[in-house]
Task: inverse folding
């Protein structure tokens, strides 16, 4: 059998991995440390030289193109390795080794039992792996020479890595690395790290040094300050955006203007026990807009309804717009001279909250440039400001921390906070989301200058 080798170098900090013969290899660290790059190269080299079956496990729901599949494929193509690449599988044409890519969570982890013969397990983004899943997966991998590799960015103190170290003190290798340990790091990552260190030091510690989040960092919005507060107000000559979160009981809707860079939230409509038709009616009564109205918001409103009224939530919104004399924004109606137009800029699905957290915080304070691109009127949108200051996540999750009934009885506005964040972030996620096409859709307008002219 021909032996295929390929030349590659790794950061010296990872060299102990080659000589470690026990079961658990834990590689923690920050962005740019090279741990995923190292593991992909090492596993490919092993499996190209001799038979190894490799199972790459990622959090269920993350896209395959965002997983290590892309990295493995790039290495195979760069070094012209004798592998056949398929959508969820890679097969070595010489040794017969295979690499399988799957997603699991606590509800699907039992399905991994069919891979018990695999001898290399690679847990991508292992900070998302629960101890429950690990306890089921670990005995499933029964091959005597099996090795389990964990690559992760620390997020909480009592994670699966700590469980492994406490439970198997003589069977693990632990290496923590950062971009500083990686001599092959790209210059743009070094530049980005320097900017984030200057503008968002807590983010730098967490993202680039791989340190645990500091106390208080469970806040959803980390860097909101008075610099994000601006006396934004309605301008009839600008497109009026209305963004909304539909809920039975508590609805949170906002009016804003935007340009290619900035978002200006100038009014809030937080109501209880009011259906979507009545919500849009109240906004249109207050702002009988003479131009284009753009609807952003909760994608689930296309299919569900939060009241007994006929139609989905977006049906109720559109029906009220039609009743007020608006027509759909298209070439035919624009050519016919209609001025009162409406358009739905709503994603097919809301996607993960994590993406919205990142996209929202990136606009609150751009960690690279130091720019602020979200502005809120603190007088007309007080619940929005409260949300920025008080909404938190449950540690280690993407779920909002709930307020107690006692808290809400003292401050009734607290019941709206999670809905407020969802509502406001839907607009940013549509135009500047992590996965969305962020190319400009509007001619840039300096709205602040227009406010000054109107004073």
Result:
């Amino acid at each position: 059998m021909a032996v295929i080798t390929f030349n590659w170098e790794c950061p010296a900090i990872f060299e102990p991995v080659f000589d470690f013969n026990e079961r658990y290899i834990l590689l923690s660290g920050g962005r740019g440390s090279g741990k995923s790059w190292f593991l992909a190269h090492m596993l490919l080299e092993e499996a190209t030289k001799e038979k190894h079956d490799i199972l790459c496990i990622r959090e269920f729901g993350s896209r395959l193109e965002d997983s290590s599949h892309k990295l493995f494929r790039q290495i195979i193509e760069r070094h012209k390795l004798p592998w056949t690449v398929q959508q969820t599988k890679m097969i070595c044409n010489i040794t017969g080794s295979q690499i399988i890519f799957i997603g699991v969570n606590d509800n699907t982890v039992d399905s991994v039992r069919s891979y018990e013969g695999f001898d290399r397990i690679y847990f991508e983004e292992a900070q998302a792996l629960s101890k429950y899943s690990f306890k089921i997966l670990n005995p499933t991998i029964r091959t005597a020479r099996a090795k389990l590799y964990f690559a992760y960015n620390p997020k909480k103190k009592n994670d699966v890595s700590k469980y492994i170290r406490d439970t198997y003190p003589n069977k693990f290798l632990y290496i923590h690395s950062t971009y500083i340990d990686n001599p092959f790091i790209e210059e743009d990552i070094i530049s980005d790290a320097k900017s984030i260190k200057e503008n968002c030091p807590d983010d730098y510690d967490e993202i680039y040094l791989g340190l645990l989040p500091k106390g208080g960092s469970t806040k959803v919005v980390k860097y909101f300050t008075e610099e994000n507060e601006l006396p934004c107000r309605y301008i009839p000559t600008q497109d009026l955006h209305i963004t909304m979160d539909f809920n039975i009981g508590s609805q949170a809707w906002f009016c804003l203007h935007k340009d290619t860079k900035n978002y200006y939230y100038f009014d809030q409509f937080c109501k209880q026990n009011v259906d979507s038709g009545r919500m849009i009616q109240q906004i249109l009564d207050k702002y009988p807009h003479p131009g284009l109205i753009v609807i952003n918001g909760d994608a689930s409103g296309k299919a569900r309804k939060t009241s007994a009224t006929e139609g989905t939530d977006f049906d109720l919104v559109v029906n009220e717009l039609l009743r007020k004399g608006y027509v759909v924004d298209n070439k035919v109606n624009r050519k016919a001279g209609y001025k009162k137009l409406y358009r739905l800029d709503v994603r097919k699905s809301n996607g993960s909250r994590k993406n919205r957290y990142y996209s929202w915080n990136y606009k609150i304070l751009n960690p690279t440039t130091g720019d602020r691109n979200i502005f809120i009127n603190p007088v007309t949108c007080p619940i929005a400001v409260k949300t920025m200051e008080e909404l938190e996540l449950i540690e280690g999750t993407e779920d909002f921390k709930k307020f107690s009934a006692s808290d809400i009885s003292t401050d009734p506005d607290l019941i709206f906070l999670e809905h407020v964040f969802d509502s406001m972030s839907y607009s940013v996620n549509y135009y500047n989301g992590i996965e969305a096409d962020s190319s400009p859709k509007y001619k840039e307008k300096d709205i602040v200058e227009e406010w000054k002219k109107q004073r």
In short: DSSP finds 14 helices and 15 strands in the chain. The first helix runs from residue 35 to 49.
